[in-house]
Amino acid sequence: MIEAQGLTKRYGDRTAVDGISFSVHPGRVTGFLGPNGAGKSTTMRMLLGLDRPTAGTVTVNGRSYADFPAPLRQVGALLEARALHPGRSARDHLRWMAASNGLAVRRVDEVLDMVGLTDVAGQRVGRFSLGMGQRLGIAVALLGDPPVVVLDEPVNGLDPEGIRWVRTLTRRLAAEGRTVFLSSHLMSEMALTADHLVVIGRGRILADCSMADFIAQHAASYVRVASPQRGEVADLLRSQGLDVAVHGDELRVQGLDAAAVGELVGRSGLLLHELTLVRSSLEDAFMTLTATSVEYSARQQTPAGAPR
Ligand SMILES: Nc1ncnc2c1ncn2[C@@H]1O[C@H](COP(=O)(O)OP(=O)(O)OP(=O)(O)O)[C@@H](O)[C@H]1O
Question: For labelling, which of 6, 71, 75, 296 has a CA lying 20 to 30 Å from the CA of 141?
């Protein structure tokens, strides 16, 4: 389990992470979301002992990363493209990582197989594509068979097959009882992968809840209604106290489920051509929740003198 308590990082007068507390539990995939500059990478770097908190703590199974005698056995991590020796082969890179961390060299072929790099294991990593480099980074993360796996943007540079592979892999790691903590900009992918979400904006926690609760709380679903008698249907639904918005040829109705809307209209004898429950996506929910954080960071990044 990963636990952050009052975790804070300041760079000069800029607060990148502002006193956040959260827990990442084993047996499920926890997604870590936030707009650009929200503090995700800084949090992950502190978790992995690459940056020192200004205040607060972050621990893995009760200990700081720096206190683990063999960290790769405890926490496997993929951060943004790591420095690889371009002349070394993928297999040699993994062997070197295994040897320098006291891990069994036979594990190298197992992880090469797990990430689908067996056929190219002898090639120099300098000639690897971005996606192959990501797979190698994931192989390093899994080398020590760790109970906790932290992946920052693991699907970057992967093709659709690779993206699906990361989804299956992370879900399997969680099903094996591991703690899986994952960031991604691909919302549709995160919606399919994560069970739980921690969302940050401007260095603070905006949400820490299940995926289902997040979507239910932060984006509204509605019933799409199409009818040749649109005006009468709208009047009827409004007379029942429902919220009805007109969008082109369709009505968007909130306050009742599709079956109940259909029964109401059906009893009145009016005609219906379409009745569909439209569920909001994770992306809608994320945009709603983080709108202010995004505006803030957009303003922050406007160059001096540029029109606003
Ligand atoms: N070494 C540093 N020195 C100064 N400021 C930094 C440093 N690292 C990060 N920051 C600032 O801290 C804030 C959080 O950055 P961080 O990279 O953690 O965000 P992020 O959520 O990972 O964003 P992205 O999705 O763009 O990677 C940003 O405002 C960033 O400019």
Answer: 6
Residue 156, ligand 1, Cβ within 6 A = no
* Contact 238 CB / ligand 1 (< 6 Å): no
Q: pLDDT tens digits for 154-193? A: 988 888 888 999 999 999 999 999 999 999 888 888 989 9
Separation of CA 73 and ligand 1 centre (Å): 28
36 lines ligand 1 (CB under 6 A): yes
C-alpha of residue 63 to centroid of ligand 1, in Å: 25
Question: Looking at the predicted structure, is the pLDDT value of residue 307 above 50?
Answer: no
- Residues 139, 116: Cα–Cα separation, whole Å: 9
Q: DSSP class of residue 70? A: S
User: Does ipTM exceed 0.85?
Assistant: yes
Looking at the chain, which runs of residues are DSSP E strands? 2-11, 14-24, 28-33, 55-60, 75-78, 148-152, 179-183, 196-201, 204-210, 222-226, 243-247, 250-254, 274-278
Among protein residues, the one whose CA lies closest to atom 16 of ligand 1: 39
| Per-residue confidence (pLDDT) for residue 60, from 0 to 100 | 95
Has domain 220-278 been given CATH number 2.60.120.260? no
Q: For 2-212, which CATH superfamily applies?
A: P-loop containing nucleotide triphosphate hydrolases (3.40.50.300)
Q: Does ligand 1 have an atom closer than 6 angstroms to the CB of 33?
A: no
Residue 294: per-residue pLDDT = 59
| Ligand 1 midpoint to CA 141 (Å) | 23
Supply the pLDDT for residue 305: 40
Kindly state the average pLDDT of the residues 46-58.
Answer: 95
Grouping H, G, I as helix, E, B as strand and the rest as coil, residue 20 is strand
CA–CA dist 192, 63 (Å, integer): 31
Decide whether any atom of ligand 1 lies within 6 Å of the 39 Cβ.
Answer: yes
Return the domain boundaries, the chain. 2-212, 220-278
